[in-house]
Amino acid sequence: MAAPQEEVRVIYKPKNSREEYFVFAYPDEVLRWRKDKSIPLTEVVQTFEVYESSNGSEGFAGRPSKQTLENVFSTSKDTDVINYILENGTFHNQRRGNIKEYNATNVSRGKGVSTNENAIGIHN
């Protein structure tokens, strides 16, 4: 079985705006694709979903409306928007792909919290 590929958010942030638009992709494949556009997008992106965060990297992300995509990218066609983000975006939040476990400690709230599928909750 092959090792999981790293996954990153490729983020495009328009000038003078807090909004960010991003896709989940594989960084090595993005770099290859930037040099050779004949590589299929199915090998580059994890999904054909474009996400928007109106508060930068904070808060919730959702899917932008077609009108929003038209206003920002002059198109609402998903492949054209994804191409633009991959070409002009930057890598953020590099992590191992599809690993559903992380630990977080918030000192003001007490002990660490885990999202491990087998042990969701507070740990001692």
TrEMBL record:
Q: Which residues form the Ribosome maturation protein SDO1/SBDS N-terminal domain?
A: 8-94
Task: Enumerate the InterPro entries for this protein.
Answer: Ribosome_mat_SBDS_N_sf, Sdo1/SBDS-like, SDO1/SBDS_N
This protein's name: DUF1960-domain-containing protein
